[in-house]
Amino acid sequence: MSIWEILAVFAAGVGAGTINTIVGSGTLITFPVLLATGLPPVTATVSNALGLIPGSISGAIGYRRELAGQRRRIIKLGIGAAIGGLTGATLLLALPSTAFETIVPVLVAMALVLVILQPRISKAVQRRREHTGAVARTDGGPLLFTGLMLASVYGGYFTAAQGIIYLSLMGMLLDDTMQRLNAVKNVLAAIVNSIAALFFLFVAHFDWTAVLLIAVGSAIGGQIGAKVGRRLSPTVLRALIVAVGTVAIVQLLLR
């Protein structure tokens, strides 16, 4: 890499770590930059996955206060995320690179609709619980576990907009604040990235310069994202998710 490419990859890592912690979709920053340096798509994908792990961990640490009291929830959902992440990583090497291109924009668009409608859905669900006397499940039940596991399959495959899908599912099925759900999202993303990267270590080729640059940059960005994200109101955070998700859809369609 030239000095300018090194700076570009590092800056992309900072940006990805920041946006991943707040919303998700940081891969849409790093992946095109890695391709621009001349890396093949699969090498860029696996190098990106490994490099973003420190950013996910850094973001989760930044949100540690919001993680309080969620250990049982994280363990259960984390198991589904790990299974999905490993499956997605396997599919990346087994399927053609175009396999997810058609369905991904549709998934992201559906996730954005759920994010927008989440307050109304939550109120409707709450009214129904009050009417029937049902008690809300703190882990979201089998539906959330299955949904997050399937989202993690995609996360292990590519990761772009993975966090948006997580937030939409949890926002619809869990009765909790957006900030606490965002904290869980960061942990789940760290699990998926770590599982996928460990798998890739044995079967794929990495560009270790890119990995190091993204790792350092994303770790810095994770702390920045945590400081910024925790100050956002639920409405502003939801609006940011929709904005980033819309950009993600456009970029995915133009690839």
Q: Tell me, rounded to a whole number, the average pLDDT.
A: 81
| Helix-strand sequence | HHHHHHHHHHHH
How many H/I helices?
12
Measure the end-to-end span. Answer: 24 Å
Structural notes for this entry:
The chain is mostly helical and 255 residues long. The chain has one domain (3-254). It is built from twelve helices and no strands. The protein has helices spanning 3-22, 27-36, 41-51, 53-62, 64-67, 71-94, 103-132, 141-157, 162-173, 178-203, 208-229, 234-254. The mean pLDDT is 81.
Structural key phrases:
single chain, 255 residues, mainly alpha, 12 helices, 0% strand, globular
Topology of helices and strands:
Layout: H1 3-22, H2 27-36, H3 41-51, H4 53-62, H5 64-67, H6 71-94, H7 103-132, H8 141-157, H9 162-173, H10 178-203, H11 208-229, H12 234-254
Helix pairs in contact: 1-2, 1-4, 1-11, 2-3, 3-10, 3-11, 4-10, 4-11, 6-8, 6-10, 7-9, 7-12, 8-9, 8-10, 9-10
Concise overview:
The chain is an all-alpha fold and 255 residues long. It contains twelve helices and no strands.
